[in-house]
Amino acid sequence: MIASMTGFGKAELLKDGVKASVEISSVNNRFCEIQLRLPKFLQELEGKIKELIFSRITRGKITYCLNWEENVPPASYVKLNYEAADVYFKIMKELKEKYGLSGDIEVEDFMSLPDLIKVEKEEYELEKAWEITREATLIALEEFDKMRKKEGEGLALDLKKRIAELDRTLDEVEKLSFLNVEVYRKRLKDRISELLGDYKIDEQRIAIEVTFLAERSDITEECVRFRSHNQQFLSALDEKEAVGKRLNFLLQEMNREANTIGSKAIHPEISRKVIFLKEEIEKIREQTQNIE
Q: What is the pTM for the complete model shown?
């Protein structure tokens, strides 16, 4: 079943003291482009994340965002810098003794001093971080795929109805094509009558001209190819792999056949039907721009 190129998926994973939140969204694009937003310390995982996304998505402009929160108590990494405190205390005592200063040394005297508090937070092990990132990303991709496939189902239903309409119109065009010869015969006789007046019309010569026209205006081959493209289009809608590019190619071929039928048309109603065919092909083309 076809999948839309637009989708959204998110996941939140709580594991090993970490909350990893992943969001994946995409819009239409001829190729597969990925934009990543990662915490600075996880930049090294960019290649692995892209490889994982490429394994599931072939077309679209994809935005990937990873938020990383570690549930680590401050007491485990915010510590008193005893070496600095000892130096400050020693300096304060020396000042009191040398200049005969009164008063006790209080905690408040230390709090505004630089480098008294040090942060010794260890960075999360990269391999372990990748396992969490990978798991969260896969969950988000599952949600992302569900949404794309659901939209794809709706697109497929609409496209199948439009292809059926193309087939129906082709049937009408074929029926009208048999009137091409009669329309041409009448036009030819009327034109000759205008030019010759009361002179006798050479019916044999007209028959030859009409036969020649019948061969040139025959659209049987075009209709057969057109229907073949329609069937290939419908078959592609039921395939599992990405078929967006193939559908666009088939639409080009359908449009080519419609143009040829239009160039051979003599009956005015066929021309109107061809315009309808081309309009419908363009509507289908707009829809397929959203298919992976």
A: 0.67
Taking only the tens place, the pLDDT of each residue in 202-236 is 566 655 555 555 556 678 889 999 999 999 999 99
CA 89 vs. chain centroid, Å, equals 65
Of 32, 35, 7, 37, give the one whose Cα is nearest residue 22: 37
Chain Cα centroid distance, residue 93:
71
The pLDDT tens digits of the residues spanning 69-83 come to 887 555 555 677 888
- According to DSSP, the β-strands at 7-15 and 18-27 are antiparallel
At 2 the pLDDT is 85
Question: Which domains are present in the chain?
Answer: 7-72+125-148 (3.30.230), 74-119 (no CATH), 153-288 (no CATH)
d(CA 35, CA 179): 58
Question: What are the residue ranges in the chain where pLDDT is below 70?
Answer: 72-78, 119-122, 179-217
For all residues of the chain together, what is the average pLDDT?
85
